[in-house]
Structure formats: structure tokens, C-alpha cells
From TrEMBL:
<feature type="domain" description="GHMP kinase N-terminal">
    <location>
        <begin position="116"/>
        <end position="179"/>
    </location>
</feature>
<keyword id="KW-0460">Magnesium</keyword>
<dbReference type="InterPro" id="IPR020568">
    <property type="entry name" value="Ribosomal_Su5_D2-typ_SF"/>
</dbReference>
<keyword id="KW-0418">Kinase</keyword>
<comment type="similarity">
    <text>Belongs to the GHMP kinase family. Mevalonate kinase subfamily.</text>
</comment>
<keyword id="KW-0067">ATP-binding</keyword>
<dbReference type="InterPro" id="IPR013750">
    <property type="entry name" value="GHMP_kinase_C_dom"/>
</dbReference>
<keyword id="KW-0444">Lipid biosynthesis</keyword>
<dbReference type="InterPro" id="IPR036554">
    <property type="entry name" value="GHMP_kinase_C_sf"/>
</dbReference>
<dbReference type="InterPro" id="IPR014721">
    <property type="entry name" value="Ribsml_uS5_D2-typ_fold_subgr"/>
</dbReference>
<feature type="domain" description="GHMP kinase C-terminal">
    <location>
        <begin position="250"/>
        <end position="328"/>
    </location>
</feature>
<keyword id="KW-0963">Cytoplasm</keyword>
<dbReference type="InterPro" id="IPR006203">
    <property type="entry name" value="GHMP_knse_ATP-bd_CS"/>
</dbReference>
<dbReference type="InterPro" id="IPR006204">
    <property type="entry name" value="GHMP_kinase_N_dom"/>
</dbReference>
<dbReference type="Pfam" id="PF00288">
    <property type="entry name" value="GHMP_kinases_N"/>
</dbReference>
<protein>
    <recommendedName>
        <fullName>mevalonate kinase</fullName>
        <ecNumber>2.7.1.36</ecNumber>
    </recommendedName>
</protein>
<keyword id="KW-0808">Transferase</keyword>
Length: 345
């Protein structure tokens, strides 16, 4: 993987390269980018060993700019964070904690010994708390901005490790799905900590719709776990069914059977809804997408709020999108399958 670089931005960062080697002084701002993701199938079950199918969402992006600051490290620690592009970022404190851990780990991995303060500006349009991977995308963008600033190469393994460092601070133990998919260019099958890029044989578009409600992933995880405790065999049955649906969807995506792919989405929604992980608004949006000609629809992400995802033929995408807005979606994004690269590597 080559280091992701962008042209130097005109920022309001105070830049000072005092104490930095001559080689680094030529670059006073580093830039990195990443994008959102959506889970197509496999949420929740993936933490119990089932596979998950995840989709990159390039329409929703984040750009990180990192520059030298005139602050001393004693002022606010060795990193300060400014977030733009969203009306409200209540998780900024957690993101800052994750960023500090990421930056410290980056410096350790690269053998960097300077203690100059860094200013990080994140321009993020990915809505937080919607299951779209905003924290992982921000972390990945910062990784490549640091690599750009310090003129270092970052391997895929290093990038994953660094993003996970931040994710584990923000969310606790992270599955790794987000860390991989926010840098992917094609759908991924994620299983047992490894990811495989999937071939795409289907036309059509995925439509992601925001319910406007912040997802409650921790509550959803606990609700599911409690249900498993109360009903012997429930966990095994949930994982078995989730695995079956995800494998069928993977094969349908590769073989060009969009109707079957859509049907598996809807069946997975029923699996999550039966576990109490959906909401009335999302159920209404799923119904609206199907009534407008969608091939399938389901909640995506942790659940109990957040987003849903629908599959539609290209000619039906506009009608499905309109119907989703009429059912309460506050914003939508269309991801055409033909715009993604999928060669199965």
C-alpha cells in the first residue's frame, strides 16, 4: 500500500518545524483521507465467529490535516484536535483520547523521538453514532496524515493496527470490520479476523438511509446477550442462521443474482428485529423501501437506531430513495455497485 498523500492544504494551523530534521521541514502539513462503511449482513453475529459482509461508502469521507503547532507539549498534551463538518460531535473527547493513543503508537512504530505538539484538524461528513464507521474513518485518515507529515510508509498491517489502537479506546474491544472497510475499495467478507475482497457480479445500488436516531450499540449488544442467556441454544441458532444468510448473500453478489441478495437482506432484518434490535422508524423505512420496488432492506450496524440499507435495481433507486424520505429518513446515500472494484483478491 502506498502512502496516501494530498496537496498541502491552506489551513489555519500554526506551523513550526523547530527541532525537526531538515528532511521533515519541507512538509509542514500532512493530509490523509478515508471513507465510511456499512454492514450489509453479519452485524452482531460476527463477534460470535460468523462472517460479515461490509460495504465501503466512498460518498461519505473524512480528511485529516496534521501540522506542527506552536503549543508546547505541556499545554494540552502532545496532540490537539479540531473537528469540523458535523453539527454536533459529542464523542470528541473519546475521539481525542483515541487519537492520542494512535499518535503515540505511530511515533513508537516509526522510531520518532521528537516531542513537538501536533494540531489535528478532522473535516468529517460521516454522521456519528449511525453505524457508518465514523471513528475508524477518522483514525485511518489521521494515520495517513501522520505518514504524510513524517514522510513514512505505512503498510496495510500497520494501518490496521493503528486504527484498532484508536478504536479499542473509543469502543472497547473492536471487531476490526470498521478498521478494514474504511480503507477498502470493494465489498469485503470478514471472517475470523481476516478480510477477503469480494467479486461483484450484480448491477444495482445500495441505498443507505439515516433514521435520524443515534444507534445504541452497547444496549443492543447487551439485549442480545441477555436473550442468549435466557434461552438455551438461542446463540447457536442465531449464529447458524446469520452465517447461512451471509454466505448466501456473498454467493449471490458474485453470481449476479440481485433478487436473492436482496431477499437475504430482508431475512437478516427479520433476524435482528426478532431479537429486539430494530425500531419502529427503521421497520417503517424497510417496509417503504420494499413497497417502492426495493429488492431487500434491513437495519445496518449496531441497531436500536442508526441507519438501514436497501438494495434496488438502478432504475428503481430514485423511487426507493424518495420512499425512504417519505418514511422518515433524514438523509440518504446511494452506492452503485458498478462503481466499486471487486476482483475477489
Amino acid at each position: 500500500m502506498h502512502k496516501e498523500q494530498g496537496e498541502l492544504s491552506e489551513l489555519t494551523l500554526q506551523t513550526s518545524a523547530e527541532g525537526v530534521s531538515e528532511g521533515r521541514r519541507a512538509r509542514t502539513v500532512g493530509v490523509g483521507r478515508a471513507h465510511a462503511k456499512a454492514i450489509v449482513l453479519g452485524e452482531h453475529a460476527v463477534v460470535y465467529g460468523a462472517p460479515a459482509l461490509a460495504l465501503p461508502v466512498p460518498q461519505l469521507s473524512v480528511t485529516a490535516s496534521v501540522g506542527w503547532s506552536s503549543h508546547s507539549p505541556d499545554d494540552t498534551g502532545d496532540v490537539s484536535l479540531t473537528m469540523t463538518g458535523s453539527a454536533s460531535r459529542p464523542e470528541a473527547t473519546q475521539a481525542s483520547d483515541g487519537l492520542r493513543s494512535l499518535t503515540a503508537e505511530f511515533r513508537a512504530l516509526m522510531g520518532l523521538t521528537d516531542s513537538l505538539h501536533l494540531d489535528v484538524v478532522l473535516d468529517c461528513v460521516i454522521p456519528a453514532g449511525r453505524g457508518l464507521g465514523s471513528s475508524a474513518a477518522c483514525a485511518r485518515a489521521v494515520v495517513f496524515a501522520l505518514a504524510d507529515l513524517f514522510d513514512r510508509e505505512v503498510t496495510p498491517e500497520m494501518a490496521f493496527h493503528l486504527v484498532q489502537t484508536a478504536e479499542n479506546v473509543v469502543h472497547g474491544r473492536a471487531s476490526g470490520v470498521d478498521a478494514l472497510t474504511v480503507g477498502a475499495s470493494a465489498p469485503l467478507l470478514f471472517r475470523a479476523g481476516e478480510a477477503q475482497e469480494l467479486p461483484i457480479g450484480c448491477d444495482g445500488s445500495f441505498i443507505i438511509a439515516d433514521s435520524g436516531d443515534v444507534g445504541r450499540t452497547k444496549d443492543a449488544v447487551e439485549l442480545l446477550r441477555e436473550g442468549f442467556r435466557r434461552q438455551p441454544g438461542a446463540q447457536e441458532e442465531f449464529v447458524r442462521r446469520a452465517t447461512e444468510l451471509t454466505e448466501d448473500a456473498r454467493q449471490a453478489l458474485a453470481d449476479g443474482r440481485p433478487e436473492e441478495l436482496g431477499g437475504r437482506l430482508t431475512e437478516y432484518h427479520e433476524l435482528l428485529r426478532a431479537a429486539g434490535l430494530s425500531t419502529e422508524r427503521i421497520d417503517a423505512m424497510v417496509g417503504a423501501a420494499l413497497a417502492a420496488g426495493g429488492l431487500g432492506a434491513k437495519i445496518t450496524g449496531g441497531g436500536m437506531g442508526g441507519c438501514m440499507i436497501a438494495l434496488a435495481r438502478s432504475e428503481q433507486a430514485d423511487a426507493v430513495t424518495r420512499s425512504l424520505h417519505e418514511a422518515g429518513a433524514v438523509q440518504t446515500w446511494v452506492v452503485p455497485l458498478k462503481g466499486l472494484v471487486g476482483d475477489g483478491r
